[in-house]
Amino acid sequence: MTENSEHVSTLRDMLSGILGSIPYGIMCVSDALEVQVLNQKACEILGLNHLLIGEFIDRHFENVFVNEHSVYTRISEVMLKNRKPTLDLTEISIGERVVTIKCRTMPQGFLVVLRDITQESLLLHRATHDSLTEVHNRQYLEETLDTLLPEIIEAQHKAAFAYVDIDNFKAINDKYGHAVGDEILKCVASLLKGCVREQDFIARLSGDEFAIFFNNCPLAQGEKKLLEVLKKIESIEVFTKDALVRTSVSIGLTSVEQYETDTFTSLMSVADTACHLAKSEGKNTLHVIEATGTEFKDHLKNVKWIDEIEQAISNKRLLLYAQNIEDLRAQSQHYCEVLIRLKQQNGNIVSPSAFIPQAKRFRVMPLVDRHVFESLVRNMVDNITYSVNLSGQTISDKSFVAFVERIMDTYVFEPKNITFEITETTAMMSIDDTVKNIKALRKKGFSFSLDDFGTGLASFNYLKSLPVDTVKIDGLFIRDISSNRTSGQIVKSICDVAHSMGLKTVAEYVTDETTYNEVKNLDVDYAQGYFIHEPELLGIVHGNYDPDIAQAS
Q: Which of 95, 315, 411, 496 suits 308 as a labelling partner, its CA being 20 to 30 A distant?
C-alpha cells in the first residue's frame, strides 16, 4: 500500500469513527458508484452486520441495499438515470423499521442520509388513528380537511363527503356485549378501507360513526362506491356462542361546493342530515343531498333554527307557558304542564312544533330541557304541581342527574311538586340509562309521567320496565273517543291496567264537553286540553304576571 493510500485509509477510518457517533445512517457514494463511507447506524437501519462494514467499502452501493432492492432501484432511477440533484423518500418500510431517506449530490458522487423514525411514526400513528379500527380519527380528518378544502375549491376539483352510521349499534352492544360490538366496528372499518382509493380518507368520528372523504371525486362516483359498500355490508357476519350477528349501515352523502359546503363543519352538518334521512328510509340505505339543491336549502333553514334557539336562550326569548290539568276525581293541588314558546326578534311567538324537531335532530334538546327546568325552579310557586317535558336525549344523559343535584343545591324548592314527562318512544331508545336516571331522580322526590302512552306496539310491556307514576294517554285515542268505540275501549283498558299498577292516568286533547264527559266516565284521573284551559304565560297562570317572570331567563 502506498503512503497516499495509507493516508486516505487513515482519513476514512477517522471519518467513520466520527460518523459512528451520529444518530443517522450516513453513506457516501463515489462517481464510480462505490461506497466510500458507511457508518454503523446505516448498517443497523439497513439490516446489515456492522462488523462487516469493511466488506462494503469500495464496492458498488447496490450491495448495501441487498435487503431492500426496491430502495436501490428508486435511488438509481432518480439520482443516476434522471440525474436529479435531490431525492427525499418518506416513511419507507425497511424490515420492521420506518425510515426516511435523503439523497444529495456532492462535487463527487452523492450522499445518502437514513433516519429511523419508527418511534416517531408510531406516536404519530397513535395520535392520528383510532386504536380499535386503525382508520384515522376525527381530529386528523378535521385538520386535514381544513387544509385541503380551500385548495380543492381554488382548483375547482370535485370532492364528496359521506357520513356512515351503523344501524342499531347500541342494541348490538347491549344484547351481545362490547366484544361483539368492537368486532362489528373492525369489520365495517376494514370493508370501508377496501372500497376507497389511496387519495381518499376514512375516519372514525365516534362510537358507531365513520366519515369518508372522496378526494378528486364527483358526487355520482362517490354514490356508486357507497352503493357497493351497502351491498358488501350485508356479508358481514360475527359469530357468538349463541347467535350469528349481522349489521347494516345508513349513509349520508354530499358534495364539496364553494360557499355551501367548503368547511369540515358544514360538510359534517349536511352529510349528517342526509344520514338521518337515510335512517328514516330504512336500514342499509344511502341518501344524497346535493349542496346546490332544494333539500340543501331546507337543511340550511333547519340549521338556522339552532342559532335561533341558542340566541333565544341567551336573550331571554324562550318563554315559559303553562296549561292547567284538571283533576276529575277530587279537588287536589293545582296541576299544570309547563310548555315553551320562542319569541323571535321581530316579536312573533313561535310554537314549539316549529323548532323542537330541529332541536332534537341536532341534539340541542338537553340545552333546552336544562334551561327550562332551571327557569321553572326559579319561578315556581308552592301550591302548584308542574309537569315538565324531558326529551329522550336528556333523560338518558348520564350527567343529567348531577345537573339536577346542582340545581337542588342552588335553589330552594320541593321536588315532589315536579313531574318529569317522558315519551314512550324516546324512553325506549336508551332504556337502561333512562331507567337508571328515573330511579335516581325518584329517590330525590321527583315524579315521572309517561307521555303519548299507547302508540307503541309493546306499550304495556314497557310500562312494566319504566318506574313511572302517571300515564298520559295519547291524544290519538282521545280525539275521537265519542265517535269511535274502539278508542273508548283502548282508553278503558289503559286505565284499568294503570290503576292496577297504582298509576294515575291523564287524557290529553280534551277539546270539547262531550270528550270531557267521556273520559270522566271512563275513570280517567286527569284531563288536559283546550276545553279545560288554553296555554298561557306561566306568570298569568301564577296570577302574578310579569314579563321578566314569563321569560325563561
A: 411
